[in-house]
Design a protein that fits this description.
The chain is an alpha+beta fold and about 375 residues long. It is built from 13 helices and 16 strands. Pfam families: Beta-lactamase.
Length: about 375
């Protein structure tokens, strides 16, 4: 996971972990190309930087910009990245899981976000999650677990990672998380919450996460390549709906295009329109931009497993993964940007803030 090795790791997860394929559909829908110059600058900390500076300063490996559904810019600065490389997306996977949950609601596999976790996972009745609704988990407001800290050796997220990679019992780690706040009252970024959502989806649909993603999402977006989830080492193997989805940058951009266009592609509604709009922003005060507290950066709000960026219309929002993975969507500008990276650390507030500043500048430029 350290540089420079992680550039290889983040494009070869299928060499390192068990996987389950998410096959592309029979109908491939090519993205049109309309290359545009990217000779713009963004201002960060009282200095002007170019997009080339952004890639150098934030270790970009893949970068795709869509405007009105067309590729206007694409580059792969990473040593092992290219148009066919499946990128490790980390917590961008959470936003994909949210899209799948919206689809499951629309087709009736899940009744309501007001349903309780135990309606789908009865075995969680003796855990802190017994009190929670799906809505609590979607907004990272379950009140379960401590702050997610990668630098503390025995933190919940480190024990989760060790169980996933080392063959431990992942469910046992999640089930042991303590209640630290009342449900629905406090934002606390939680991989555990997103992982429970993935298990709920599998229970409700009777399908693995990869199989459901294939049937309801990936086969419908015109993807160029198969995607995959990598799985836990221990059996029964399970996908990490909170962080193990891998796909090409172009295909991730197709997901962003779906969200930019209210969940529809070519007049076919894939993700419910109301679900997309729910993902753009929340009216709950504790989820507003700047109100997330120590578990979120000041330039973000949160809603429905997406990071929100404010504004009256909630038009710009983004999926974010550790080590610098982004799926940025600006609906009003009809701009989608995918940025994959290989940061030397999982989190970095300054690099994140610089990246968001640059992505918003690009969207404004093309708008």
């Amino acid at each position: 996971m350290r540089r420079p090795f992680n550039e290889w790791t983040f494009t070869h997860m299928n060499w390192l972990m068990p996987t389950e394929r998410v096959p592309r559909g029979e109908a491939h829908r090519p993205l049109r190309h309309d290359p545009q110059p990217m000779d713009l600058t963004y201002r960060f900390e009282d200095r002007d930087y170019s997009i080339e500076d952004l890639h150098r300063r934030t270790f970009t490996t893949a970068f795709v910009v869509l405007r009105q559904g067309m590729v206007v810019h694409e580059c792969y600065p990473g040593a092992f990245a290219g148009p066919r490389s499946r990128m490790q997306l980390f917590s961008v996977s959470k936003s994909v899981t949210s899209m799948l949950l919206g689809i499951a609601l629309a087709e009736g596999a899940i009744d309501s976000v007001k349903d309780r976790v135990t309606d789908y996972l009865p075995s969680f009745g003796d855990t802190a999650y017994a009190e929670n609704t799906l809505a609590d988990l979607l907004d990272m407001s379950s009140g379960v677990g401590d702050r997610e800290d990668w630098d503390v050796p025995d933190s919940g997220i480190k024990r989760f990672e060790q169980a996933v990679m080392g063959g431990g019992n992942v469910a046992q780690v999640v089930r042991a998380a303590p209640r630290t706040a009342a449900p629905g009252q406090r934002f606390n970024y939680s991989t555990f919450d997103a992982q429970v959502i993935g298990w709920i989806l599998e229970s409700a649909t009777g399908m693995s996460l990869a199989a459901y993603a294939t049937k309801r999402l990936w086969s419908a977006i015109g993807a160029e390549r198969d995607a995959f989830y990598w799985l836990t080492r221990a059996r029964p193997r399970t996908a990490i709906g909170a962080g193990s989805f891998n796909a090409t940058a172009r295909d991730v951009a197709r997901l962003g295009l779906l969200m930019a266009h209210d969940g529809a592609i070519a007049d076919r509604q894939i993700v419910p329109r109301d679900w997309v709009r729910r993902s753009r922003g929340s009216d709950q005060p504790h989820l507003a931009v700047g109100a997330l507290g120590p578990s979120g950066y000041d330039h973000y709000g949160y809603a429905n497993q997406w990071w929100t960026l404010g504004g009256m219309a909630f038009d710009a929002f983004t999926a974010v993964g550790v080590h610098g993975q982004y799926l940025f969507v600006d609906s009003s500008a009809d701009v989608v940007i995918v940025k994959c990276s290989a940061w030397p650390t999982q989190d970095d507030e300054r690099r994140d803030r610089e990246t968001i500043t640059a992505l918003r500048r690009i969207a404004d430029h093309f708008a």
